[in-house]
Amino acid sequence: MESSQDLKSLRDTVHSALVTVTRSVNALANEDLQFQRTVHPSVATRLDQNTERILRLARGVLKSASNFTSQREPQLEDVDDVEIQWKGVVDVIDSLLEKSDTCLDEYTGLVKRKDAPTAELGRELKRSRSTTSRLDWSMKRANILKPQNAFERKIDNFDSGPWKPLMTSKPHARVPLETSLDTFVDEEGRTQYKHPYEQEITNMQYPEQVYRSCEPIKYLPMETTKAIWVDTYEGVLEMLQELKQATEIAVDLEHHDFRTYAGLLSLMQISTREKDWIVDTLVPWRHKLEVLNEVFADPKIVKVLHGAFMDVIWLQRDLGLYIVGLFDTFYASDTLGYAGKSLAFLLKKFADFDADKKYQLADWRIRPLPEEMFYYARSDTHFLLYIYDMLRNELAELASQNNPDGNPIDRVIQKSKEVSLQRYEHPVCDPETGAGNRGWYNTLIKSPTLYNGEQFAVYKAVHKWRDDVARQEDESPFFIMTQQVLSDIARIIPTDMKALWSLLESNARGLKGRLEELFQVIQEARARGVNGPTMLQFFRELSSGASQTSLGVRKVAAAAAEDSEPLSIEELKCDRSQLWGDVALNSSLDGTSKARPIREEDMIPLYTFDFGAIKEELPETNQPSPRRVAEQDTKGLPVLEEEGFTLKAGRKRKSRDVDVESASEAEAVSDIEMGGDSSAGKDHPKSPSVEQEVEGGDDKAAKQAKKQAKKAAREEFKRAQLLAEQLAQNGDIKGAKELKAQARKALRAAKKAQKQQQQQQQQTSASAATSAADEQTSGEQEEGHDDDAEQEPFDYSKASSVLHAAQATNGDDGDDDGGRKEVRGKFAPFDPYGMKSGDAPQGARKMNHVKGGRTATFKK
């Protein structure tokens, strides 16, 4: 480009072309192309031609972009590959867009052009970001020949027996080597060799200077000293002679585990007060480094390491070295309560040295070792003995203050001994239960994905296949196949080799020769998993056991594979709380409470009614119920019933629900059968003389007519109801509703007529009773009875019923209905003081009446 104007015109042209293409694509997406392809064969041919042309153009664009961005080119052979390889297409396009943005920013001057990378290597050399990233990546994942292929002692990754220590001699031994190499059975039921220096480490007494506060010996400046590179056996022997003269040495290790199955101890740094040594542990004769046990196992020499948890294991596994007299500065900083416990923190605190930890995960197999990595490795031990002096003095000062937790130095030494007593064991991977440090159990127990039977079987099979291939080729399982790829294969279960190939990442392309083998493993596992347990069922069975170890779950897993039925609630219950342990749920029940124990008489029984038993106990008779007897017995004294009351449902609201209407109809029929009102059978008791007068005045013909009217109304209602059901079954819902409405209207009219007739009879009875009572009162006054002395007690049996008060109609004064008055066609709530005098207590008047609308708080 010669000017910004040319760039603007090109940008406008590209933008216009992209807009046109996008509109065309959106228009095509709205068309039913599959229908057109089926109806018009010519359209199908044109579509296939255009599809092939677009794929060819896309392959060309992706090829050019992948070459420019150093990305892997996705292969698009057909339309299905677009979806399968979509992730690779997006990666190429994103990389291309990022490079375009960078170029545009450099052209417009928004950022400065990046400097060209230089070939010089130096610790203080400043590099561009891109150069540093490429250097870091090459240091972490160097493509070099495997040094383990040249070892004189080959690595056996398929050794399933107990790992035997590599020692051929035992310097500074209290117990002979033959006696030390004894076996035992661990908690998981496996046979293991004991620690060769177990007795020596346990009974060791550290030198006296470890417990005393001494003047710290200042480290020598790194610029004035030089580290010695040791890669010959003669150099090892020379270093050993100087190490024997020291009282303290500092040791550190560098490890690599990406291109090997078990791991490789790649470098060992040893420092005294005067010298630093960098020992190459990848030499073919590395097993001869066992001679360093003359120093490492010497109890008179203190070995200072920081975070030696894994260092002790690596020394045993690769070199046959054991540390006796370890002082771990990590536990010293932890005991002193430092804010940071890393080696970088201690280097900055005591030596004012900024450790560059970007090489901590570098590939330490690189030979010759770059200068930067050499400097980093040396710095880890060069200052460590001075740090040991400072920590030891602080611990001794803390011990002189009568610490209640004991001597702090003793705690650090005890922790260091525990680290030294660790033993290396073979990597374990149980394919069925997933147990072991190389198993899948710990990974799946934390995974949010739940696999079904087929997916779970495929996951286990592919995991075992990956582990076998890694052992055979002496590679890390994650180098063979990453965890993400393994999860994708189990989740998707590819149905052909092409789909399987698309799931593999770039670092798994080495499996091309094993692709058919892997696909066969997937298909066989999928067939086995049809009737196998799901992932959830497996973990349910595994957690149902009371106690199990990492390898002691084989039987549970086998049971889960045989029985894939879901667990019942009873099987999931646990007698012991996982949160509270053996603590009882109620201390008053198990006798541990200090309060008075619960007695049987303090407990409140919960009554239950067995209606079936009650029905069996009651004899079946044809006699009427007591309630019916009370209603029919109008001669003699009134019968008092001892039974609980039943709340009567209020008036039904208008509803379109058919069930509610049916309930209203049933209630109306029952009301007619009971005499037109539910209170008809509960008339107020009357005196015998009055009842006789009313009974004597009734007309038998009127009663017979009334009975026939009731019967006719019931039959008419039932007939209408049957017709309505038939209409509803035939689909005429509207006609059924109209017929029911007419039946209900007729019922209401009959009920109203019966109520009016009943009220007339009640008024007649009331007037007769009033006249009889007046005559009786006048007779008593004439006889001269003293009301104050011989006043009769109130007879509750003759009082008007409050619960079953008769409802007043429009125009009634409401004096004989218990105080209930009709207000606008609806009865007002019952007033208990309605029939009392004006001196009766009145209800309190409502205060602080709340008005509707907003309160004053929200007024503007």
TrEMBL record:
Region described as Disordered: 618-860
Keyword tags: Exonuclease, Exosome, Hydrolase, Nuclease, Nucleus, rRNA processing
Family matches, as InterPro entries: 3'-5'_exonuclease_dom (IPR002562), Exosome-assoc_fac_Rrp6_N (IPR012588), HRDC-like_sf (IPR010997), HRDC_dom (IPR002121), HRDC_dom_sf (IPR044876), RNaseH-like_sf (IPR012337), RNaseH_sf (IPR036397), Rrp6-like (IPR045092)
Biased composition regions of type Low complexity, renumbered to the chain: 755-773
GO cellular component: nuclear exosome (RNase complex); nucleolus
GO biological process: exonucleolytic trimming to generate mature 3'-end of 5.8S rRNA from tricistronic rRNA transcript (SSU-rRNA, 5.8S rRNA, LSU-rRNA); histone mRNA catabolic process; nuclear polyadenylation-dependent antisense transcript catabolic process; nuclear polyadenylation-dependent CUT catabolic process; nuclear polyadenylation-dependent rRNA catabolic process; nuclear polyadenylation-dependent snoRNA catabolic process; nuclear polyadenylation-dependent snRNA catabolic process; poly(A)-dependent snoRNA 3'-end processing
Domain of life: Eukaryota
Biased composition (Basic residues): 742-754, 846-860
Domain HRDC: 452-532
One Gene Ontology MF term: nucleotide binding
Subcellular location: Nucleus
SMART domains, per database record: 35EXOc
One Pfam family, short name: PMC2NT
Ranges annotated as biased composition (Acidic residues): 660-670, 780-793
Presence of keyword tRNA-binding: no
The family this protein is said to belong to: Belongs to the exosome component 10/RRP6 family.
Protein name in the entry: HRDC domain-containing protein
Lineage, uppermost ranks: Eukaryota, Fungi, Dikarya, Ascomycota, Pezizomycotina
